[in-house]
Amino acid sequence: MLNPLSKHVSDEPKLRSDARRNREMLIQVAEQLLRETAGNLRIEELADRAGVGMGTIYRNLGDKDQIIETVIRLCNERALHALLHVPIDGDAWDSFEAAANVIVASSFGNLWNPQLIALVDRTSPDVHELIVGITDRMDAIIMRAQTEGRLRTDLNPREILDLLTRIVREMIPDGRSDDEKRDTVHRMLRVVLDGLRSVS
Q1: CA 160 to CA 80: how far, in whole Å?
Q2: Residues 179 and 122 in one domain
Q3: Segment 74-92 mean pLDDT
Q4: Domain final residue pick, 46, 62, 78
């Protein structure tokens, strides 16, 4: 299978080191804002948070839609990269548990918001390819765990993936710090994993 990550490595513009660092900083700030606002990004707020002018934002990242696409693409690249490093030749449950943690970590803070993903997925072939890569990898890991009797079989792989992302999308508590939210989410994940483990 062609690694969907391989073609993206050289896609980023060739920038001087200082310009690259500035662009990476802006992307990090944009990602944080997207996580805080569930995709309701405002260029003015991004510029204010980053301490730069709006012209700098447009020159480095483009308009709002381009910024969202960039952040979603990079987040999905990280998720796929992590999933491709989950071993699939060892204990099937350990592989599934590691993959579940990757999915929850990548979706923390609403970046797997279905409306946001659907919008970018329709307009960006790169993002679509990455999402296909993630779901295919999860399918393989989940089906192996089910085949080996380690994971319950009354849910199909896509339902299990949806359940994992819902932990973050729908159960994350409001009004708490990121550390408190992460702690809550990972405790919930432990409960979900216990429920998904096959008792046979």
Answers
A1: 17
A2: yes
A3: 91
A4: 62
- Rounded Cα gap, residues 159 and 143, in angstroms: 12
Q: Is the same domain home to 41 and 83?
A: no
Residue 93 contacts by C-beta under 8 Å, 6 or more apart in sequence? 145, 150, 151, 197
Do 70 and 54 belong together in one domain?
Answer: no
Q: What are phi and psi of 98, to 5 degrees?
A: -65, -40
Say how many C-beta atoms besides its own lie within 10 A of residue 40's C-beta: 13
Identify the CATH number of the domain in which residue 41 sits: 1.10.10
Confidence at residue 49, expressed as pLDDT on a 0 to 100 scale: 94
104 domain residue, yes or no: yes
Q: What are φ and ψ of residue 18, in 5° steps? A: -70, -40
Q: Look up the pTM and report it.
A: 0.78
Residue 114 is predicted with a pLDDT of: 60
Looking at the structure, do residues 31 and 107 belong to the same domain, yes or no?
no
Q: Which residues pair with 197 in a beta bridge?
A: 151
SS3 category, 151: strand
pLDDT digits (tens, 9 = 90+) for 90-128: 899 999 999 999 998 876 555 556 666 666 666 688 888
With beta carbons less than 8 A apart as the criterion, state whether 178 and 185 touch.
no
**Residue 53 domain boundaries:** 13-62
E strands, the chain, are none
DSSP 87: -
The whole-angstrom separation of Cα 102 and Cα 96 is: 10
d(CA 98, CA 105): 11
